[in-house]
Amino acid sequence: MNGTKFKLAVMMFLEFFIWGAWLPQIYQYLGDGSLNFNWWQIALVMNAFSIAGLAAMFFSNQFADRNFAAEKFVAASHLIGGACIFALAWARDFWTFFLLMLVHSLFYVPTISITNSIAFTHVKDPQRDFGPVRLWGTIGWIAAAWPFVFILADWAKVPAFGSVPFVSWLGEVLGTGKTGEALRESKTFMFYLSGVASFALAAFSLTLPHTPPKPASGMDRLAWLKAGKLLAVPFVLVLFVVTFFDAAVHTCYFTLTETYLQKVGIAQNWIMPVMSIGQVAEILTMAILALFLKACGWRITMIIGILGHAVRFGVFAFVPIPWVAVSINILHGICYAFFFATVYIFVEEFFPKDARSSAQGLFNFLILGFGPLVGYFLWPYLKDVFTIEKVTNFQQLFLIPSGTALLAAIGLALFFHPPAKAADMKQLGL
Q1: Where in the chain do CATH 1.20.1250.20 domains reside?
Q2: Among 8, 169, 379, 416, which has the minimal tally of Cβ within 10 Å of its Cβ?
Q3: pTM for the model
């Protein structure tokens, strides 16, 4: 790996470490895990990211692209966003917490696409080189999970180092999780870790190769008009609707999985690593995705991705066994690669060059914005409706995302009929 690609890989690692440090475990922290916010307060905090996603698509990304060198924008954004996420460790009242999370998100979310832009600009062959660089973002997300094995270990119950054989000592560390007030206090480390990574990326961004601002074009102003025109094509409309439901179902994983794993007996210090199994699976699945697409085609691949949600949440509902609850998380990566990644590839390959940015924006609107916006309101509300004192009642909630995913897969199977070849898209007026 040459010097430029190494810097881009470090950039991606830190970019997704920041996000992965807090998202998998913040939901329970907001509720009965620490802050005792009610369902709509939790929904608003979780949706700070969705609001920022919508702002980025309509305003922030284009504003940053046209007015700032990309590496300097990333540096400034992570300095401000890092200060906000760091300060969340001390925030206790709702409005302070929400506003800090909103400001963090408004500065962080645009950097997701801008770091991609930096990478695409400075690799020699984007088709060959971008994937290995972006892979380090997934590795960063996984890496953010593992410190919590030790941060959330109950050190008060661990023998003094050297008083027992090392293997026995390590076994006590790995097998003893904090509970109660000690757990609540230690969970604030998710904000410290995320904040430190933000500051590190802010400084490191100044060493990235210069990426000057892009001039505005008339095409940019017409992007959303073109996006609306795309929905007049039946198969695009079907994929649009299915993507909305899949994006909303996807958020259920980040709102309810931590509570579920805790209820079936997974120690708190192992929940983050268990949830990171999905990202490990994502790496492996992305490696075979091209072969799978060639063998099975677009529709079958997407259907498998959606059905992954139906199976995983169905297992949560009916099989509350610890080893099953752990192993089924492998489907999270398969769901992401086989549906969301496939949608992006489909758009890139099928749509004419002058319609691609509009189409990508259309589906980003759902995947990063409107789908999560609805999901992050829906799942906290339903959790509040269901009685969760008994694990059996809580399990029943997972039948809703499971059934929704199943219906979405059926809809895709019946109504998604794209042209046989990308060249045929021109006949549709695109």
Answers
A1: 1-152+187-216, 221-420
A2: 169
A3: 0.84
